[in-house]
């Protein structure tokens, strides 16, 4: 039994509506339903009566709700007590999505290099969980897709990350310099775990639809970047990920950028607007210096700027269209 399952159940018990509960938890409705079903299987009882238009708690569900709320309250108090014990230390609590994505780790290494007095606590969590931890003060700063962040979360664009596809060596995509987005229509496409990177998944699906097709998605799920690379190595699918996906250097796999259009995923630093930590400004400053040094924002053209919020998710580099691309061999 996981704490997130308890939290999901409590939220659903309060809303009695899967759609509203999923929105509160910043996850898709199917993910919420799956977690509730897993919880019921583990307990061996039915917690909810479900119908097409109605959700009610069973007697077992009502009894479980009382205890679940107490558990979550105790966990919250325990965390606050631990934080209160170290308030005198200069600490920064930073969220990272997955060890396979290198943007935030690079920023934190730069911060540690220039400010060795700051103690950094890294918390690995998906973006929905990072939003919750920003809201309740367990995180000072996080990273994600600003368009999907709650209204009370401030953001700073820090990287335009080339989007590409991870394939096994010998795949037809491994030889060309770039892969047209439309070519993904003939592939089985692996997305990330929905509770880890829902915004990236939506970004990729929207990109495919803008290219005129609905992607064929691999039905399984993966819990880590290493597991995703394993599926690619087994020739079971291809994986659409940004260049910051560090396992793209894994032996036996090849990462190639998407072209037509050349597309970049926008990573932003995120923090709660009421967070008083003095280290947030320091992190942003170091991240901006790092972005300038590594050219993270160079894909933005001064004349055109990034794609406006809510439009098709592509930022096209003028040089990408002018380059010579070797053709993709037929399957």
From TrEMBL:
Residues 301-331 are annotated as: Disordered. GO terms for cellular component: protein-DNA complex. Keywords: DNA-binding, Transcription, Transcription regulation. Residues 1-58 form the HTH lysR-type domain. Gene3D superfamilies: Periplasmic binding protein-like II, Winged helix-like DNA-binding domain superfamily/Winged helix DNA-binding domain. InterPro entries: LysR_HTH_N (IPR000847), LysR_subst-bd (IPR005119), WH-like_DNA-bd_sf (IPR036388), WH_DNA-bd_sf (IPR036390). Signal peptide: none annotated. It holds the Pfam family HTH_1. It comes from the Bacteria. One of its GO terms (molecular function) is DNA binding. Belongs to the LysR transcriptional regulatory family. PANTHER family: HCA OPERON TRANSCRIPTIONAL ACTIVATOR HCAR (PTHR30346:SF0), TRANSCRIPTIONAL DUAL REGULATOR HCAR-RELATED (PTHR30346). This is DNA-binding transcriptional regulator, LysR family. It comes from Nonomuraea solani.
